[in-house]
Design a protein that fits this description.
Layout: H1 4-15, E1 25-41, E2 47-62, E3 68-76, E4 84-91, E5 94-100, H2 119-122, E6 138-143, E7 154-160, E8 187-194, E9 200-209, E10 221-232, E11 235-245, E12 255-269, E13 274-289, E14 300-316, E15 319-329, E16 338-349
Antiparallel strand pairs: 1-2, 1-16, 2-3, 3-4, 4-5, 5-6, 6-7, 7-8, 8-9, 9-10, 10-11, 11-12, 12-13, 13-14, 14-15, 15-16
């Protein structure tokens, strides 16, 4: 996978040998979601009201050689004013994209079930550990053209040259990035998706990074996910399985931590306006310690965090009213810790 970076850079500069573009168009889309959240059981944070927002400013156009381009800046409720940015060049040979905190390729949500959003990704009082993803950094990607391969197969390749680079930097900016990265030096990623029959979608991803600071004694980080979703009429079912092990440096060699995940859900669309869904998300944290002095074997502990959620969504016009109820056992990978959460929401899209 390490040769992918050279391939992406070569394709990018080939695509940029082009003439000036025609005037483009600007569009603004977005949405806002108001929520009333109640939390219970251990580590309860009480009740709160919030509003999240997302605005996408998108400019697009065509070059006089037939290539297309798209630039997008996203304003949301994150700390940075425009933390999510993309510039994409479309060609007959595929799409080349430059992304900052955008362009996610991980397939941990490939099962795609949720009346309001996919399982734990929509609402969870606990933090699930599941995978590396290029969208947490500044990255470059290549996407194969649509309809190039049979059975709706699409391939995406991504590369993060520096895993300390998470914000936008101009050519004149001093990155100020330290020499040692906390999660690895660079990240290489691939995604394959397919739609072999009507109603069935399959997606898988794999990511690999170097050990912390490039330490020769550390372990490389790796994650992989494979999931599918099948829809027949008003009924949908999905399942995803994956694993994740972070890169470690020499100081962490005495202990290895990795995660094994299983996510599934079912959804029923009662009619065009009303949907209900159930999700079960399970993540096992495996901690393996080194063999102690005078011992014949190491020790291993497993904590399985499990979340169940029920969602109901009613859509009318451009508004969606939703209710999500969440229950978590062994929350935050702490044995015996339970958490619960109920979210009542009103989402407006435009």
């Amino acid at each position: 996978m390490k040769n992918i970076s050279k391939l992406l850079v070569g394709i990018l500069f080939s695509a940029l040998v082009m003439a000036p573009s025609y005037a483009g168009e600007m569009a603004v889309t977005g949405g806002a979601t108001a929520t009333y959240v109640t939390n219970g059981d251990d580590a309860s944070s009480g009740k709160n009201i919030g509003i999240s927002n997302e605005l996408d400013f998108t400019a697009s156009g065509e070059l006089d050689n037939g290539f297309t381009w798209k630039y997008q800046v996203q304003l949301d409720d994150a700390g940075a004013a425009n933390d999510d940015t993309r510039l994409e060049i479309g060609t007959d040979m595929g799409t080349i994209g430059l992304y900052v905190s955008e362009g996610g390729m991980s397939a941990e949500l490939a099962h795609g079930i949720g009346a309001l959003g996919t399982g734990f990704d929509y609402a969870s009082p606990s933090s699930f550990v599941h995978s590396y993803d290029v969208d947490g950094y500044s990255n470059i990607q290549y996407h194969t053209p649509a309809d190039l391969l049979p059975f709706g197969i699409g391939v995406k390749l991504g590369f993060v040259p520096n895993m300390n680079a998470t914000g936008m930097l101009s050519a004149k900016a001093d990155s100020g990035l330290p020499a040692t990265q906390a999660e690895g030096r660079d990240l290489t990623m691939a995604q394959v998706s397919a739609a072999p029959i009507d109603g069935l979608s399959i997606k898988g991803s794999i990511a690999e990074t170097n050990s912390e600071g490039g330490d020769a004694n550390g372990d490389d980080g790796i994650s992989a996910n494979l999931g599918a979703k099948y829809t027949m009429g008003q009924f949908s079912v999905g399942y995803t399985e994956g694993g994740y092990q972070a890169a470690t440096g020499a100081a962490a060699n005495d202990e290895t931590i990795y995660y094994e995940n299983k996510f599934y859900g079912v959804q029923f669309d009662v009619n065009d306006n009303l949907s209900v869904s159930y999700n079960n998300d399970e993540s096992e944290k495996n901690t393996r310690a080194a063999v102690a002095v005078a011992a014949t074997a190491g020790t291993k502990t497993i904590v399985a965090m499990e979340q169940e959620s029920i969602q109901l969504a009613y859509t009318i016009g451009g508004a969606t009213i939703g209710i999500a109820d969440v229950e978590v056992d062994n929350a935050d990978y702490t044995a015996g810790k339970t958490e619960s959460q109920t979210v009542v929401s009103l989402a407006i899209s435009f």
